[in-house]
Amino acid sequence: MSQWVRGPVCGVNNCQSRLYHWSDGMQICQYGHVVEGHIEINDDHDENPVTTRRLRIPRQNESQLGRGSGTGASDRAYGANARLVYLKCLQALLHFQASRFALMFKCDESEFKPALKVYWLRLIQAYYGTNDETKTGRIPGALDTVSIIYLSLIQRGKYPVYVSDVLQGIKHSTIPFLKCIHLIPKAYREILPSYYIKSLEPYKLPLCGEMYESILTNAKHIGAECHLDVINLSFYYPLVFKTLSRHLLLPNSPSVSFICFCLLDMLSPQLSLTPKTKTSSFPELQIVSFIMMAVKASFLQSVPFSLENYLDILTRYESDSEFPLAGNSSDQSDLLDWSVTKTDNYCQWVYENLVPERKDEELTAMERRLRQIFSLDETFVDTSLRPPPRGSPNSDKYPSSNVGKYIEAIASASSIDGNDTKAQAFNALDARLISYLSIHFGVSKKLLQKNYNDLEKTIKKILPSRSSSNSPALQPLGKSETPFN
């Protein structure tokens, strides 16, 4: 009979035995449990058993090791300290944005900075105040800082600052908005919690009315100091002319501007910025609907250029201005500021216009089979609206760097004839204006269409004799008539 040896607890089925003996090279406890992994070869039972002790060294958990070696997580601020750090970061961003506003709109910072400081304090009080009636329950972000700068500038009434220009500055990174975390001091970035980053650096552009909603919301929080009960119509005259001449490329932009001014003077819309103002009633969005109506009224008269040709050239201009590399008028550093959507669209344009098609013999068997299933005949591809490739004879006809040549090309076309063709062209004009201006002014197509329809109904009520169910919006005026007499 073999001799029992004391060892560690067996542990098999919660066995508490510490006595073992060896049998056929296996270690067996006193209750018959075989300890796996303990196999002894050439066991000599004649020798005296030697008891050994297992050295048990406690090992630290890997997660504990990671927490002990990391120093960044322990330096982060939390709770009230994190909120204070975030407000300091947001204030630093506000300082950079205000300086960019001053450079972009050619204004003096000393004139609007005092009002901006007051608005900033009111904003913090509204978001983090002790009064439950004014506390909003969310944290301010980069969009809120842009909106209070806009309110401080428009409150002065000296500078023609428009939301559309602010949105263009955000798109081209002239105003820090998307990629602005590097502007924050490093000492603040290292201790700022990560859950504040999404508010400090948004992940998308405010192109669906977020800018207007933020301006109205913050105007309500700030108080009556930034409220404008009545805004003079002349404040938006530069916006009307710039939109018609620079963005819509109308050769007759002075006359169309006059039509728009007459519409504004006749209907006298209420342009105000108060807590009761809705997003659809924002002053600039009302002006946009008047611009669209004036453009349509001008084409209902006998204009000296073709509407179809105008839409075609406007499409070409938008493509060249969106991707200025096609006209060799872009700085290479601008590529870093492109959004993901703009980069994808440009790559798609390059693939469709510049990348040569592969011949059938160069295709794989799978690609040839796909071409047999899905025909890619050029007769089904509409290339009339594509920008001309570089190096072609007409490539310098519509350079993106010279807007005047686009306007000359529009003015040189003859006017269209035929009621059916004109009706289709006007439908295309409505859709095109809504699509383009909704992107330019950062608002949804649905809201812009609603404002336009409301204005059209108002004009039909005022001019019942000149509106008909068969006409797009207004009947053409006679040659001897003034636009609104």
Summarize the structure.
One of its GO terms (molecular function) is RNA polymerase I core promoter sequence-specific DNA binding. With 485 residues, this protein is mainly α.
What's the SSE blueprint?
Blueprint: E1 5-6, E2 19-23, E3 26-29, E4 34-39, H1 62-69, H2 80-104, H3 109-128, H4 142-156, H5 163-171, H6 186-191, H7 197-200, H8 210-222, H9 237-247, H10 253-267, H11 283-300, H12 307-322, H13 340-353, H14 365-373, H15 403-411, H16 419-440, H17 445-462
Antiparallel strand pairs: 1-2, 2-3, 3-4
InterPro entries: Rrn7_cyclin_C, Rrn7_cyclin_N, TAF1B/Rrn7, TF_Rrn7_Zf
Domain Rrn7/TAF1B C-terminal cyclin: 205-354
Subcellular location: Nucleus, Nucleolus
Keywords:
zinc ion binding, Rrn7_cyclin_C, 4% strand, nucleus, transcription regulation, mainly alpha, 485 residues, extended, Piso0_001087 protein
**Mean of pLDDT:** 74
The 3D shape can be described as: extended
Class derived from helix and strand content? mainly alpha
Number of strands: 4
Low-confidence stretches: 62-73, 325-329, 378-402, 413-418, 465-485
Order of helices and strands: EEEEHHHHHHHHHHHHHHHHH
Give the strand line-up of the largest sheet.
1-2-3-4
Radius of gyration: 36 Å
Kindly state the percentage of residues in helix.
40-55%
Number of domains: 3
Main sheet record: 4 strands, antiparallel
How many H/I helices?
17
Distance between the termini: 127 Å
Query: What portion of the residues fall into strands of 2 or more residues?
Result: under 5%
